[in-house]
Amino acid sequence: MALLLVALPASAADAMRVKDLGKLRGWRDNALVGVGVVTGLAGTGDSMASKTTRQSLANLLSQFNLTVPPEAIQSRNVALVSVSAALPTFARPGDTLDVTVSSTGDARSLVGGTLLITPLKAANGRVYALAQGSLSVGGYRYDANGNVVQKNHPTSGSVPGGATVEVGVSAEMMDEHQSVTFVLNEPDYTTASRVAAAINGRLGMGLAQPRDASGIEIAVPPGRREHLVGFFADIENVMVRPDRRARVVVNERTGTVVSGGDVRISRVAISHGDIKIAVSQHNSASQPYGVWQGGPDVRTAIVTNTRVDVDEQDGGHFVAGQDTVADLVQALARMRVSTRDVISILRAVKAAGALHGELVIQ
Q1: pLDDT tens for residues 332-353?
Q2: Nearest residue to 174 (alpha-carbon basis) of 121, 235, 91
């Protein structure tokens, strides 16, 4: 089903908190990854051809003083998996993380499996968390005698709260100049200037200076360097009205149009209609005089008759004198123009140079 959304024009009531527009530099998640073994599978694990799985299980057993050659392992109840998680900023030892588990071998399903303890490492090679627990798989796969029934992707799952942080992390928010940098989610010079002006109006003139389209440098006063939490809270709750780019987003696959209500257009004439052309052929046999007498040069001929039908439906004719895309869309909606036709019209209006904004086609 097609969908069309139009955002209303920005107004003074559109003021937002600074914390909703971006974040302080240094506030980021850290990727963790590990390789583990899932056990307890009902014959849906890796096959005997997976040497990596058998070697991993042999290494695991050796830690418990069980020496088993890899080639002696014949179980299909285990699978080699990759384990990933995101370590948030200011994570402390004992915190739990959600874990994503996916098969790296030829296992058919991870349903009913249990992840054995797996170290999770960061890019620096240091272990920051340990993961283990029962898998939650949002699918299944069952096969017998060549018949397969499968739902979703049973070779990947998750362990909610399955990782325990062993080494905490922290972020240095202040740089060597005793200042912090606020980074916008969507770089924009106008918004950066407004954020700096709003912070200066709330906390004091000269503290915030926009450095580029995405970064606002904020000096920390000497009296507040020992109480950064309160200072950061004051910054996050400053109200500012962000600027918005004139942009229309079109998704042709789903028939979705999302437009800012203040995207302006010039006066333009639109004619939109459908022409259907049908070409049909009819074959008939021609029986000339004398065919029944069997003359040497007399024979039946196949005659092909071609017919071309042109059906031109009533096209829509429209002159847009509106100021914004929202007005144009509302006028087309009153004419009962379909959403996919609206997409074609917007593309044509942009090509004609009458759409004063960015047209993003996905």
Answers
A1: 777 777 777 778 888 888 888 8
A2: 235
The tokens of 14 are what? 């559109």
Residue 47 burial (CB count, 10 A)? 12
Summarize pLDDT for 289-329 with one digit per residue, the tens. 655 555 566 666 676 665 655 455 555 555 555 567 777 77
How far apart CA 25 and CA 180 sit, in angstroms, is 7
Which tokens sit at 81? 């998996």
Question: Considering the entire predicted model, what is its pTM?
Answer: 0.64
Quick one: tokens of 111? 């349903």
CA distance readout (Å), 121 to 63, 84, 92, 96 = 20, 9, 16, 15
The CATH class of 15-26+172-240 is: alpha beta
Burial of 243 (0-12, 13-18, 19+ CB in 10 A): middle
